[in-house]
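Input chain follows. Return structure tokens only.
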Amino acid sequence: MFESKFFKKGELIIEEGKTEEIAYLIQKGSVELFRMEKGKRIALGKLGVGSVIGEMSLLTGEAHATGVEALEDTGVNAISREDFETMLNTNPRSIIPILKEAFRKLIYMNQIAAAFSEKGEGAAAPVAPAAVEAKRGMRLTARTAEAERALKGKEVAVAKTPFNIGRATRDGAFDNIDLRLQDQDPYQLSRTHCSLVYVQNKYYVIDTSSTLGTTVDGVRIGKREALKKVVLEPGRHTLVLGSPNSPYRFELDIPEA
């Protein structure tokens, strides 16, 4: 049902504002998401192999909110609305990547809207998640034995945003988690605990309504707290997932923007 397509470097894959009920699964290469504002091109992020683009237009029939251009020679698998509906009836598991991407973006936009609706602020979400280049990526390092066990290692590189952190579960087919941490009852970590995001040229930690909250450099954020997010300046930060005395303590290294 998928149609293979190839785009040369610099070629437009998706035109902003165009109505096109087609989604693309990137098989090779990378693309840049962008939008035009007053004649100026605004880069929103980079996506690579395994990513899905155009899925919201496929599912809703609405015009594309962003343009997408090939950053290098790029191969994709394209799926039309008609083929999508056929696969939904005959082989539903094959369309899970498309559905997961749609859910991820919807959840992300809701998280951003909630976090930036604090007093004195308006929702500042971009129209698409902004990706962080690997060369400018963040680094998460365990600072306790429990954190290292949960991380299954000493540290992990964070090469994109949004980057969602949560408790590992068995039924994760449709979850929105990029980093699954091991935890056990009584749980300190929630299934969807927090997210590292890049909004309007700044890095943030957003607590995604976790049960016990998140602490960033001694500042508490979460659904029970006055704050839902903390801005992260370049440098090293302390991140505690769960209660203030949680053993899941990490160091988060933020690069220069």
